[in-house]
């Protein structure tokens, strides 16, 4: 079965940086676009970034453009999210996501991974 295991979250001060990792298994990783969702307390799951299967095309939510960078290493079945200039509003649980047959992405918590929490606070 598809498994997406997130790591790298933590507590960081405003303006700081974190690098999240997602290790995938149970499917041919290089065939699928991947993304990162986040879910803040009391809010809906939000897709903040995605990357094409070959890693050449990326998309970002307006709220993170210029601050976050998504990338992938297909040889390691891993997708990354480099987060810079973090803001308190970025506080959320971050989940890895996989492309669906309809061209959208899985929702927060759809797979085995528990997500990785990010807290931005002074």
Give a written overview of the molecule.
With 122 residues, this protein is mainly β. It is built from no helices and 10 strands. It has strands spanning 3-7, 10-12, 18-25, 34-39, 46-51, 58-60, 68-73, 78-83, 92-98, 116-120. The strands form 2 sheets. The chain has a 6-stranded mixed β-sheet with strand order 2-10-9-4-5-6, with no helix packed on it. Strands 1-3-8-7 form a 4-stranded antiparallel β-sheet, with no helix packed on it. The relative contact order is 0.32.
Write the layout of secondary structure elements.
Layout: E1 3-7, E2 10-12, E3 18-25, E4 34-39, E5 46-51, E6 58-60, E7 68-73, E8 78-83, E9 92-98, E10 116-120
Parallel strand pairs: 2-10
Antiparallel strand pairs: 1-3, 3-8, 4-5, 4-9, 5-6, 7-8, 9-10
């Amino acid at each position: 079965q598809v498994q997406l295991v997130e790591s790298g979250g933590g507590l960081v001060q405003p303006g700081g940086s974190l690098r999240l990792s997602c290790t995938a298994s149970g499917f041919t990783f290089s065939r699928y676009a991947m993304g990162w969702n986040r879910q803040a307390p009391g809010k809906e799951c939000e897709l903040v970034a995605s990357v094409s299967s070959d890693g050449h095309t990326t998309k970002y939510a307006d709220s993170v453009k210029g601050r976050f960078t998504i990338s992938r290493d297909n040889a390691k079945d891993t997708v990354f999210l480099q987060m810079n200039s973090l803001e308190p509003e970025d506080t959320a649980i971050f989940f890895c996501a996989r492309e669906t047959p309809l061209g959208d992405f899985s929702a927060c918590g759809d797979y085995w991974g528990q997500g990785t929490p990010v807290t931005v606070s002074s």
